[in-house]
Amino acid sequence: TALRAFVHALPKVELHVHLVGSASLPTVLELARRRPSAGVPTEPAALAGFFTFRDFPHFLRNYLAVTSLVRDARDIHTLVTGLAADLAAQNARYAEVTVTPYNHVLDGMSTDDLLTGLATGRAAARADHGVELAWCFDIPGEKGVVAGRETVVFALRERPEGLVSFGLGGPEVGVGRAQFAPFFTAAREAGLHSVPHAGETTGPATVWSAVHDLGAERIGHGIGAHTDPALLEYLAVQRIPLEVCPTSNVRTGQCASIAAHPVRRLLDHGVLVTLNTDDPPMFGATLDGEYVAVAETLSLTAAEIALFAKNAVDASFLPSADKTVLR
Ligand code: ADE
Ligand code: ZN
Q: Where are the chain's structural domains?
């Protein structure tokens, strides 16, 4: 369609995608066949069922099972270059990619392997796909403050090339943001940007906490803010962008449909909304697809659609000279 062609032609950036969650279905099948005991299906039909989620906890369980398949530098390299190829196919030239070092180490990977795979993958992404990648190292919140401490110590000790931000993922229910404040303070003092998930599965209080306790400069999801007018105004005035992932929210049961998604309300309150995929093959999402779905549902004009792409460049942690080029 004309809309799809227009969206595809827009140079886009992706600000919320998890490295493990970006693994293509063939890659997941290949990794699963190597290690059937992990419980990840080895046939396409069964994998489709495995990626049909009852709720967020179910999603996270299966996501962590896929994580456990990733074993060494070569696997990390495969994920990074696969993501770069997929981004190039969406006409996305830049992405900030969330990596969860603590989970890989728990699953037995050495930190050397992780860093080597990221570095070689990033170089290949640039050379072979013309895609620039930056990293967000995030805390898996379900593993508690020990994971927070380990993640920030690792991030600041290694400071790999391309590391720009520090995050917090996993569940929000029962995992208060504030307990991670010391780790975000240390990360921010070292120059990393703060980008916690908040308001994906819970309401405005979590988003307020991300802002006040973690110094959030962007919010992962943040849709839970939509019921609090004061918070919406705060996000708009302070220009704290939201990394909105509509299909993800539908597929984890946070919204009944794209039509029921609060993205319209966020836009109406002047919040800077960016569109992202989160864990694209697990949700059957693509970056072009997110733009098309929102454009169709909200009957957006071409200028309004293009604004999403521009917002994402502005909201990125690219140096300002590079932003000018991409805009
Ligand atoms: N890890 C991978 N995807 C996630 C999501 N959508 N929310 C929290 N943690 C995640
Ligand atoms: Zn996420």
A: 2-326
